[in-house]
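Let's inspect one such protein example.
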Amino acid sequence: MGFLGLLASKPVVLLDGAMGTELDKKGLMGRGRTNLDSPDAVAEIHAAYAQAGCDALTTNTLTMNRIYIETHNVGVSVEEVNRAGARLACQATGCSEYVLGDMSSTGQLLEPYGTYNGGQFCHAFREQAQVLANAGINAFLVESMFDLREAIVALHACKEVSSLPVIVSIAFQTETKGGRTMMGDTAEQCAKRLTEEGADVIGANCGDLDPSRMAQVVALLKEATHLPLLAQPNAGLPTLVHGKTVFAMGPTEFADGLAECIRAGAQIVGGCCGTTPQHIRAARAMIEGM
């Protein structure tokens, strides 16, 4: 059964939580090169989420496209780091569960705000998507996108190299004024365009919204599309404590917020920055209670 079959068979699908902030706790940079430098640490986090009860794991490959790697001097091979990310997630599930190939922004802006064009972005996303597809993932998760134009390019790139489902998740800055991204795209615009362009699932993650506020964006998305919806909020809003970024929302409060997202229309839920296996375990208990 493919990932869309999983959606058809379950009223709510639970994804995993954050990878980057969990790696930070181990003193490691939350970038994909840890797949190569510290694979045991990545595998340990995947295993903890699997044991917490999630239905699918997400590869540690978020921004491992060529443009991001080269402009941020990450110093890894696109193929090697993405293949390793998929392998570590598959090993944690025993390949008996589901693995989502994680993709995100290039970290650059499209013309006229930046110096890159859509063709350059598409080439970078196609390259990463092809490696992930060849490595055995079950679906693509294009997430934390703040520019609808870039999200559409990434969606097309995934569709060009594979028939696997594509989830596209947008980072919203506010739930007011129709829900807005950093680039000013509204929730309605995102939902309608991504539906028209062939996304299989759309949703919201990260951004500047706590779980309850994200539920309001989910409701806006639901009004504008018939597609299944995803919600992966952070563990509350970040604060600086002794020079470190802290997400203070506990597992129970987080799970309560996810319940609001489900009631607003989300069928797929999980956690983004600051969430832990404990947050996902609480979410599993909440879903079973519903």
Observations:
- The first helix runs from residue 3 to 9.
- The chain is about 45% helix and 15% strand.
